Amino acid sequence: MFKSVIVAAALLGAATTAHAAPSRDDLLVTPIWLGAHINDKNLVILHVGSESGYAAGHIPGAHLVTTKILTVNRNGLSDEVPDADVLRDQMASLGISDGSRIIVYNEGDEFQRGTRVLFTMDAAGFGDHSSLLDGGLDEWKKTGHAAVTTQTPAIVGKLSPLKMQPIVVDAEYMKAHLNKPGFPMIDARKAIFYGGTIAKVTGDGHIPGARSMPFTTVTKEDGMLKSPEELKAMFTAAGVKPGDHVIAYCQAGGQSSAVVFAARTIGIHPDLYDGAFQDWSKRSLPVETSTEPGK
């Protein structure tokens, strides 16, 4: 499923499925919406967090998703999208079936954990019927909805073979598109890593030509996603032009999913470099340390 060559859809900046691209209203739901649809037969709710957090209180009917599911370690890299057969089994274990409407929410304030699950659903071909609960569990409670402590009974869904979408790219694809017009790269890590102030993994700095958009900047202080106008201004400031095909990366593939999700809500169809900087640096590929790309 990894892209190492230019495909026609990438050149056109087109959606990767035959369906119309989901709008912001499709990708984000409110507690009011979820409360009204919580008993829908095809609804699957995913609580992204810890076992202790789930036990302390979750949305009724929610299934727990920890860091141990919907991700694998591969070739020395952590938090990679699983292969189709493995991912299909993991999704089915959460009660997901072919016709499921999937709602993902965060247990805490780590926005990127929920968006990583959304990205995996998109990669699995479920991007047009998977949404994020804006504000997560905190917003659910703030709006007067109850949380429960009883564990949701396990249900195994019925899934056809997954039709994996070509939205995950590898190092070869990244190398082929360095500083290539129409393919802006966005580094979603915090600025201290982008500028090489701190070496979290072997090698400082960022992929040559990449622009900085820290994953923490796509949400407001209350954890809600920023407005379309604010997000459009941010992507414009990062050098993204209409029709561009954005490629996002971070340290291990989680933080960049927040930027990818934000992009999707304003009509941008981005890819994600899942190997991320952990892969790039291990390959001893070139990096920049200037805060101004290209210098």
**CATH fold name of the largest domain, please?**
Oxidized Rhodanese, domain 1
Count of helical segments? 12
How helix-rich are the residues, as a percent range? 25-40%
**Helix-strand category:** alpha/beta
Largest sheet: 5 strands, parallel
Would you mind describing this structure in some detail?
With 295 residues, the chain is an alpha/beta fold. It has two domains: 8-142, Oxidized Rhodanese, domain 1, CATH 3.40.250.10; 168-282, Rhodanese-like domain (Oxidized Rhodanese, domain 1, 3-Layer(aba) Sandwich), CATH 3.40.250. Helix content is 32%, strand content 14%. The protein has twelve helices and twelve strands. A five-stranded parallel sheet has the order 1-7-6-2-3, with helices on both faces. Strand 6, helix 6 (111-126) and strand 7 form a beta-alpha-beta unit. Helix 6 (111-126) packs across helix 11 (255-265). The two termini are 34 Å apart.
